[in-house]
Design goal:
There is one protein chain. By secondary structure, this protein is an alpha/beta fold. It folds into two domains: 2-220, Alpha-Beta Complex (Spore Coat Polysaccharide Biosynthesis Protein SpsA, Chain A); 309-433, UDP N-Acetylglucosamine Acyltransferase, domain 1 (3 Solenoid). The protein has nine helices and 37 strands. The chain has a 23-stranded parallel β-sheet that branches. Strand 8 (141-144) and strand 9 form a beta hairpin. The radius of gyration is 31 Å and the shape is elongated. The structure holds uridine-diphosphate-N-acetylglucosamine and magnesium ion (MG). Magnesium ion (MG) is lined by residues 101, 103, 222, 224.
Length: 452
């Protein structure tokens, strides 16, 4: 049996933030959520999060994990003190306890599996995850013998200069035989530089303790400040982009592109430079996105072209062409083979298949049929200062250039509206609507001052 405990009670002083450290976002997910995801494959019997600093805020952010139990550490007296809080909760638990630091978000599930396997195979009292890292500053140093049996863990600040040269560090991830840990937890003391109770001291009391070295030291990066947060983001990004390139997606300039790990991309899609794909987004087969586009929580069909545009919370049908400089937001559905051109904003709008809104338009709160052409510079007047109103436009309509469509408004199918019209009344099917003043010509006219 395995229980998992995540240490998430610390403030994260070095982040210099009002937000608890474990709630800082890394590529769309909080640090603590990433830690939870990394151990989900182990299918633990129990999952506990130790919370303290702004406990309610952390709990609220984790409400979508109904199986997660919260353990309060009202004063944050160190990582050992945090684990001590588990004693009443796991009094009857028999099995192994995996302890994870809430600020170590890059662990691969395979690594945790291997750690647990090593622990169980050797029947260790504890097994700790370690790695040899180029810059070990700030990490606890791990000293062990040639058969990987632990001698000692010493915190960076408690190390002598010689001890500090050791580049094998403690990842803050431990597997414990819970019954053995239960016995030593009450013995922890706070006689160190920080006057805190260290979980690393509990490890020092146990035997046998083995270390498990992760070859990829990047996995154990702990986030203590914003610089480390940015480094972790880069690592996650290169993992995500490498995966997509291996799966048949072209990313022209990976360094200038960011992709959340929630995004899905079809084969032969081309992601051009300075493009950012976020949240629950899918990109269909063969689509070409960018350069310079942001797509968030949106579904893009196959063979779609998006150039220098922003698309949020919307969907785009197959073979559509968007941009340059289009802004599509809030539940827009663009049909297949549509064209949404430069300087066009769409909001809460549906466009039927083969419809074009090609230049300089705002279409909001509208339902537009198929094969409609919206002329350049047309806008829906959807807001009267208090309420939003709907516009509908039937199939095959041709809205002239520079029309003002004052909602609520229904324009029928196969309608033509004259250029420059301000349409305020419904238009029936199959007709021409002209709503503009007649042009007047005054021959030989001059301004008054010109006549004097
Ligand atoms: C810790 C380890 C260090 C290791 C490093 C890896 C100790 C004493 N040191 O140091 O050996 O190399 O992680 O990243 O454990 N927390 C609580 N309650 C507390 C204090 C902290 O829940 O009272 C939580 C924090 O929210 C954080 C985690 O424990 O998620 C680690 O705390 P942190 O202060 O970052 O420890 P480090 O100094 O990084
Ligand atoms: Mg830390």
């Amino acid at each position: 049996m395995v229980a998992v405990a995540i240490l998430a009670a610390g403030k994260g002083t070095r982040m210099k933030s009002d937000l608890p450290k474990v709630l800082h976002l890394l590529g769309g997910r909080s640090l603590v959520e990433r830690v939870l995801i990394s151990c989900a494959d182990l299918q633990p019997e129990r999952q506990l999060a130790i919370v303290g600093y702004q406990a309610n805020r952390v709990k609220e952010a984790m409400l979508h994990y109904p199986d997660l139990e919260f353990v309060e550490q009202s004063q944050q007296l160190g990582t050992g003190h945090a684990v001590q809080q588990l004693l009443p909760y796991l009094a009857d638990f028999k099995g192994d306890l995996l302890v994870l630091n809430g600020d170590v978000p890059l662990l691969r599930p395979e690594t945790l599996k291997a750690l647990l396997q090593t622990h169980q195979q050797h029947q260790n009292a504890a097994t700790i995850l370690t790695s040899q890292i180029p810059n070990p500053q700030g990490y606890g140093r791990v000293f062990c013998d040639s058969s990987n049996l632990l001698k000692e863990i010493i915190e960076d600040r408690d190390c002598t200069e010689t001890q500090r040269q050791n580049r094998r560090v403690n990842a803050g991830i431990y597997c414990f035989n819970w019954q053995k840990l239960q016995e030593v937890l009450p013995k922890l003391q706070s006689n160190n530089d920080q006057q805190e109770y260290y979980i690393t001291d509990a490890v020092n009391f146990l035997s046998p303790v083995m270390v498990y070295d992760v070859p990829d030291y990047q996995e154990i990066l702990g986030i203590n400040d914003r610089r480390q947060l940015a480094t972790a983001y880069q690592i996650i990004q290169s993992r995500i982009k490498d995966n997509w390139m291996a799966a048949g997606v072209t990313i022209i300039d990976p360094d200038s592109v960011t992709i959340d790990d929630t995004v899905k991309i079809g084969v032969d899609a081309i992601i051009e430079p300075q493009t950012h794909l976020r949240g629950d987004t899918t990109i269909g087969i063969g689509s070409r996105i960018g350069p310079g586009s942001l797509i968030e929580n949106s579904q893009i069909g196959s063979n779609v072209r998006v150039l220098h545009s922003v698309i949020v919370d919307s969907s785009i049908g197959h073979n559509a062409n968007v941009g340059p400089f289009a802004h599509i937001r809030q539940y827009v559905h663009v049909g297949e083979s549509c064209r949404v051109g430069n300087f066009v904003e769409l909001k809460k709008t549906t466009l039927g298949d083969n419809t074009n809104v090609a230049h300089l338009s705002y279409i909001g709160d509208a339902t537009v049929g198929k094969q409609v052409n919206i002329g350049a510079g047309t806008i829906t007047v959807n807001y009267d200062g208090k309420h939003k109103h709907q516009t509908t436009i039937g199939n095959f309509a041709r809205i002239g250039s520079n029309n003002t469509l004052v909602a609520p408004l229904n324009i029928g199918s196969e309608v033509t509206t004259a250029a420059g019209s301000t349409i305020v009344k419904d238009v029936p099917n199959d007709c021409l609507a002209i709503a503009r003043s007649h042009q007047t010509i005054k021959p030989g006219w001059r301004p008054k001052w010109h006549q004097e």
